[in-house]
Amino acid sequence: QGQLVESGGGLVQAGGSLRLSCAASGRTFSSYAMGWFRQAPGKEREFVAAVTRSGGSTYYADSVKGRFTISRDDAKNTVYLQMNSLKPEDTAVYYCARHFGTTVVAALYEYDYWGQGTQVTVSS
Fold this sequence. Notes:
Elements: E1 4-7, E2 10-13, E3 18-24, E4 33-39, E5 46-51, E6 58-60, E7 68-73, E8 78-83, E9 92-99, E10 111-114, E11 118-123
Parallel strand pairs: 2-11
Antiparallel strand pairs: 1-3, 3-8, 4-5, 4-9, 5-6, 7-8, 9-10, 9-11
């Protein structure tokens, strides 16, 4: 895996929706679980969601559960984050990353490759 590129961020009103995409280069995309993290100004980077290699299992932070959906399309080397019912507190830079660990998908140290991030801003 050489590069991860996020897209789809932007400005949206509270209650609205956005879909983020993360396109990966390389031939080993399907061998890894993938995750989304976010970081707001002055705050630490936090886990948002993850999807397993097969796409059969997903994991979400409590703060986004029921509102966000992570998915992947291995044929397109792409992972998605569908964000619904957005709140102002969702405002952050969103990053996708490749997971190499075997246990805790929410742990930053279990991810090795990261995208450049895409800005999501939710107005009230």
